[in-house]
Design brief:
With 684 residues, the chain is an alpha+beta fold. The protein has a domain of 291 residues: Alpha/Beta hydrolase fold, catalytic domain (Rossmann fold, 3-Layer(aba) Sandwich). 20% of the residues lie in helices and 34% in strands. It has 13 helices and 39 strands. The chain has an 8-stranded mixed beta sheet with strand order 32-33-35-34-36-37-38-39, sandwiched between helices. The longest helix is centred in the C-terminal third of the chain and has 19 residues. The protein starts with 28 loop residues before the first helix and ends with a helix.
């Protein structure tokens, strides 16, 4: 083991060298031996009972169910779908027509069988994504991952012959961005060698690559800065509005976008923290902070629209399409050919609007389909050809329904997901807890008539991500059917009330998110819904950090903690994998002012010895070796540190799976079942 005493990032709370840096060696034999030993210990304790085996089997039934919804994505005349089941664990990329889809048992044309491909090439392929060339939709850039990592291999695929293109566009494994320009040219940002990646490990250099030429000879069209998150380029092929745009993300929440012109890049002059969308003649702008322009101040989280060409020419004639208030925020937007659909949240409940431009301005109307308590998400539109839209509607007790409509027409039900658990006697309530600074924090409770069983509190609270009501057959079978109560906390740091809700828990204000979560835990007890001994907490990724803070800062509030694919060492997170890209969220540990607050809640630096009187609830750390987004070293080191200090954490690391900690349905069922088993044994 290397002596890292001189490394300022290696300091533990006592100021000595971090003794567990060797666990950051992802595939090092010593580290993997430690992982295998911990996995064996945890599996021996949690997987030997009948309940675990039954839960795993029943969860796999949910994941592999033939009658679950095959969510489609329209590309031209076809609806495309990626499907995994028991017979095809790695999955099928396939397509059908709308008329066939309506039959309920469509004839699918299989384009790519990943199980067959993995066997033929002796590779652990996991599907990531595809980009299909408009307007003919006959060529695709397919991204495949080894073991579920974020890094992918890009290969060109011919949709006419359902084969990979011989000598087609192929990009070696990297965290790559690709997009079509035309059938013989693509934009590609990837690892071109030294200096071509940002400190976050993403593309810094974007090139135009012509068919038949070596990738090394591709023409550079744009370069970001080394400290950026990433750079990008794309081509808008909309007839009459063809454009080339490039840009960079200096950090996770700011960007600069440019229109490529014969005279060079021309910046779209909006605030750095604003989101922009260019569509046909329109420019949409969503400022993340209050913005004053041409004498008018527009609220953070508003949606503004203007003519793209006129704006670039200097006009600032902006129309407000949405303005938030203390209860509402804009969650999403989608174009159809002639309309703009807005998905809004009102106290975390969905409402839908459709906006239509006309000679007298924008006309707005309610779009049907949103449930009273639940979520409605636009999962597909066809902006190049029609006003078609597809909605996925669900709630905690309402299985998903896939609806299709055309703006101004009726909705039709394309698919209804099966009900995987008995909802008799179960209800959903929304309450508000009062945080330390007086802020009202909403949360949902799913429970039966008897709440004397265990309660599971879930949260995230970061990156402006909203947690909205949705159905989970696995949650129902693994938790609710065992008498469990389920709670989702909509704490600050999320996006439930727009950018201001997120910004309130940013960087030095991060503890507000943790105070919110603790307030919900206390409110559950005050309402008589649960007790600390019966209350568990679960979170993944940023939510895994949340769970880690609950463990170390609020141990008396919980009877069990599950921290999945977590960040836990906030002194070194920016040096591990994609961690540098998140400094806008938490702060820069190399900045003494930032480290001054980070060290107060970094779980790895706030866990104490059992001999000092520290008592923590039982904790389970779950991660994945192939997670190349959040380094598995966080969970490894935290577990090792706790063992050293006399505690007995559970630990399990899936060797595959990427940031989702599972590569196929069998692994997903196992990983979920082992977590539920831990919680039920600990809290019941």
């Amino acid at each position: 083991m290397t002596d890292d005493a001189a490394d300022p990032h290696a300091a533990n709370p006592q100021g000595t060298a971090d003794p567990y840096l060797w666990l950051e060696d992802v595939t090092g034999e010593q580290a993997l031996d430690w992982v295998r030993a911990r996995n064996a210990e945890t599996a021996a304790v949690l997987t030997d009972g009948e309940r675990f085996a039954t839960t795993k089997t029943r969860l796999l039934e949910v994941l592999d169910a033939d009658d679950r919804i095959p969510y489609p994505r329209r590309r031209g005349e076809f609806l495309y779908n990626f499907w995994q089941d028991a017979a095809h664990p790695r999955g099928l990329w396939r397509r059908t027509t709308l008329d066939e889809y309506r039959t309920g048992s469509p004839a699918w044309e299989v384009l790519l069988d990943l199980d067959a491909l993995a066997a033929a090439e002796d590779e652990n392929w996991v599907w990531k994504s595809s980009s299909v060339l408009k307007p003919d939709y006959d060529l695709a850039l397919v991204e495949l991952s080894r073991g579920g990592a974020d890094a992918t291999v890009v290969r060109e695929f011919d949709l006419r012959t359902a084969t990979f293109v011989t000598d087609g566009f192929t990009v070696p494994e990297a965290k790559t961005r690709v997009s079509w320009i035309d059938e013989d040219t693509i934009y590609v940002g990837t690892d071109f060698g030294e200096g071509s990646l940002t400190t976050s490990g993403y593309a810094r250099v974007v090139k135009k690559w012509r068919r038949g030429t070596p990738l090394a000879e591709a023409e550079t069209v744009y370069e970001g800065k080394p400290e950026d998150v990433t750079a990008y380029a794309y081509h808008d092929r909309t007839p009459g509005f063809e454009r080339h745009l490039v840009g960079r993300f200096p950090d996770f929440f700011t960007s600069e976008e440019f229109l490529l012109t014969p005279e060079g890049p021309r910046r779209i002059e909006v605030p750095d923290d604003a989101n922009v969308d260019v569509h046909r003649e329109w420019l949409l702008i969503t400022p993340r902070s209050d913005w004053t322009v041409a004498g008018t101040t527009y609220r953070s989280g508003s949606l503004l629209i203007t003519n793209f060409d006129a704006y670039l020419a200097g006009e600032r004639n902006l129309t407000v399409l949405f303005e938030p208030d203390e209860h509402t925020s804009l969650s999403d937007m989608s174009w159809t050919k002639n309309h703009l659909i807005l998905v809004e949240l009102s106290d975390v409940k969905t409402r839908l609007e459709v906006l239509t431009p006309g000679p007298d301005g924008w006309r707005r109307a309610e779009l049907p389909g949103a449930p009273e308590v639940g979520s409605a998400d636009v999962v597909g539109t066809d902006p190049d050809h029609s006003d078609e839209y597809m909605l996925n509607v669900s709630g905690y007790l309402q299985p998903s329904t896939l609806l299709r409509g055309e703006v101004g027409g009726d909705l039709e039900t394309l698919r209804q997901a099966p009900s995987f658990f008995n909802t008799d006697g179960l209800t959903v309530e929304q309450h508000f807890a009062t945080s330390d600074d007086g802020t009202k924090v909403p949360y949902f409770v799913v429970h039966g008539e008897d709440t004397s069983g265990p309660t599971l509190l879930y949260g995230y609270g970061g990156f402006e991500v909203s947690l909205t009501p949705s159905y989970s057959g696995g949650l129902g079978r693994g938790w609710l059917e065992h008498g469990g109560t389920y709670v989702v906390a909509n704490i600050r740091g999320g996006g439930e009330y727009g950018p201001a809700w997120h910004r309130a828990a940013l960087r030095a204000n991060r503890p507000r998110a943790y105070e919110d979560f603790a307030a919900v835990a206390k409110d559950l007890v005050a309402r008589g819904i649960t007790t600390p001994e019966r209350l568990g907490v679960q979170g993944g990724s940023n939510g895994g950090l949340l769970a880690g803070v609950m463990l170390t800062r609020y141990p008396d509030l919980f009877g069990a903690v599950v921290s999945q694919v977590p960040l836990l060492d906030l002194r070194r997170y920016h040096q591990l994998l994609a961690g540098a890209s998140w400094m806008a969220e938490w702060g820069d540990p190399d900045n003494p002012d930032d480290w001054a607050y980070l060290k107060t809640f970094s779980p790895y630096h706030n866990v104490h010895s059992i001999h000092s009187g520290a008592k923590y609830p039982p904790v389970f750390f779950v991660t994945s070796t192939r997670d190349d987004r959040v380094h598995p070293g966080h969970a490894r080191k935290m577990a090792a540190r706790m063992i050293e200090l006399g505690h007995s954490p559970h630990y399990y690391e899936n060797i595959e799976g990427g940031h989702g900690a599972a590569a196929d349905n069998a692994q997903r069922a196992f990983m979920s079942a082992i977590v539920y088993e831990f919680l039920l044994r600990t809290l019941a």
